[in-house]
């Protein structure tokens, strides 16, 4: 069976590259988000980060880290609804 894991490389503000696995993609109130988890972390519990898809003036797509508590709560609610519904089916 083929591994279907989506991995992308992100470049931080410091220029450091990090590989992350895309856990899922969500759309909340017409905004696209990706939930990602670093591949090289040696933590016992996985670390998840929400990335918001934004566009610059040239319509180039890039990611922005979500750090607004209200926005994070909306993403968490959507994520829980999706994955709780999948578990029930």
Chart the SSEs and their pairings.
Elements (H helix, E strand, L loop, with lengths): L6 E5 L5 E12 L2 E8 L10 E7 L5 E5 L3 H20 L1
Antiparallel strand pairs: 1-2, 2-3, 3-4, 4-5
Please provide a brief summary of the model.
By secondary structure, this protein is α+β, with helices and mostly antiparallel strands. 22% of the residues lie in helices and 42% in strands. The radius of gyration is 14 Å and the shape is globular.
Largest sheet: 5 strands, antiparallel
Overall structural domain count: 1
Query: What proportion strand?
Result: 35-45%
Order of SSEs: EEEEEH
Low-confidence stretches: none
Instruction: Give the class from helix and strand content and strand pairing.
Output: alpha+beta
Number of helices: 1
- Please give the number of β-strands: 5
Rg to the nearest angstrom? 14 Å
Approximate shape: globular
Q: Strand arrangement, largest sheet?
A: 1-2-3-4-5
The residue-averaged pLDDT reads 86
What distance lies between the first and last C-alpha atoms, to the nearest angstrom? 24 Å
Please state the oligomeric state of the protein chains shown: single chain
- Helical content (DSSP H or I, runs of 4+): 10-25%
